[in-house]
Amino acid sequence: MVVSSADGPDSLTRVFDSLTPQQMRERGSLKWSQYPGDVIGAWVAEMDLGTAPAVERAIFGAVRDGLLGYMPPSVSQAVREETARYQHETFGWRVEAERVSLLPDVLSSLSAVIASHTREDSPVIVPTPAYMPFLEIPGHNGRTCIEVPSPRRQSQNGSPHWELDLDGIESAMAAGAGLLVLCNPWNPVGQVLSATQLDAVAALSSSYGVAVFADEIHAPLVLDDGLVHIPYASRPGADPDLTFTATAASKGWNIPGLKCAQLIASGRARMQWQADARTAHLEAKASVVGALATVAALRDGRDWLGEVCAYIRANRDMAGEALAGIEGMELTLPQATYLSWLDCRGLGLEQPARFFRKEAGVAMSEGATFGKAWSGFCRLNLATGRHIAQEAMHRISDAVRRLPRTVPS
C-alpha cells in the first residue's frame, strides 16, 4: 500500500476507506487469520493501515542493496541519534544519543530489567488493566506480580477517565516491590498520564527506591489536539538511577515484526544496563531492516503519522457514537493509541469477547486477560478502514440487541 503524504490526507483517506475484510484476510496478518471465517479482526495491536511511504522505501532499499545481515555501527548510531532527536522535537525531552540502546522489542527489555536490575524475589507492580505480557513476564523471571486495579471516573465528555491507584502502588512499594511497570500512553484504556500522576509516581519511586520501567511504545499515537505525551523520565522528580524507558516506532508506524526497539537510560540505570551481559547483548538482536525502518519513520514519516492519527480519531468518534445508546455497554474513548476499552458488564456476559466473536463475528481481546479485576471487559482495535470499523460497530450493536432481556415482573 504505497500512498505518498504529498498526495494529501484525502488520498490516504480514500485508500483506507477502500479497505475490505476480504483484502485483510488475503493479506494474511495474525489479526485477520487467527479466527477463520467471516470474522472482523479487532484484537491484536497491529494496524490495517500499512506504513509510511518513507518506511516502505527504506525496507525496499535494504532488500535492493542486500543489507539483510548483521547491524552496521553506522545504522545503530543513526537509530540512537534519530531517537534522541525525535524525543526532543516531539516531546521536549533532551536525550543524549549515547543514552539510547537498541534491542529487539519492549518485552525483551522488561524481562532483562526484571532479571538483571531488580532484587531477587522482589515483586513487580503492574497497574491494571494492563497489556497481557506485563502480567506474565514477572513470573517467567521468578518474581511475583502485584496487580493494582485502577480507578476510573467520568470525564466531561462522558467517557470514562482512568487514573493510577497511587495508594495501592505505594502499599506495594512499601511491601518490598522492586519495580513498577508504567504504561504511558496506557494500553488498553488509551489514557495519557498527566504530569501530576507522573510526578506522584516519581516521588514514590524515589522515596522507596523502586525502579520504574516506562513503556512508551504508543507515544507517537496521541489522538487529541492539544494533548501531549509526557515522557516519565523527563519529569524533574524522576530519578535517573531508577528509570528505564522503552520505546519503538513499531506501533506508530505499524512495523512490530521488524524487531527494533530502544531503551533509554542514564545514571546508574545506564551503567547497570551496559555492565550486564544479558542486557548489553540485546543490542545484537535488533534487526538491521527494523533499524533502517525506524530511522525513516522518525526522520521522514511524521506527516503520514499525523494523518493516520486523524483517521483513527475519526474512527474512535464514530465508534463512540455508534455504541453510545446501547444499554449495558460503555466505551472508553482513547486519548492515545488505537485501542478502546469496552465495559460489557451490564450485559451479564462472563466472556464478552468470546460472545462477540461467536455471535457478531468481531474478534476482540478478553478483559480478564488484562488483569484479575477486568472480567466483563473487551479491548477493541480501531486501526482499520472506516467501513470495516462501521461494520464492526453494526455487528456489535446488533448482537447486543439480540440478547434476551429480563422482563420486570
TrEMBL record:
Its cofactor is pyridoxal 5'-phosphate. It comes from the Bacteria. Its EC number is 4.4.1.13. Gene3D superfamilies: Aspartate Aminotransferase, domain 1, Type I PLP-dependent aspartate aminotransferase-like (Major domain). CDD domains: AAT_like. Keywords: Aminotransferase, Lyase, Pyridoxal phosphate, Transferase. InterPro entries: Aminotransferase_I/II_large, Class-II_PLP-Dep_Aminotrans, PyrdxlP-dep_Trfase, PyrdxlP-dep_Trfase_major, PyrdxlP-dep_Trfase_small. Residues 64-385 form the Aminotransferase class I/classII large domain. One of its GO terms (molecular function) is transaminase activity. Pfam families: Aminotran_1_2 (PF00155). Belongs to the class-II pyridoxal-phosphate-dependent aminotransferase family. MalY/PatB cystathionine beta-lyase subfamily. This is cysteine-S-conjugate beta-lyase.
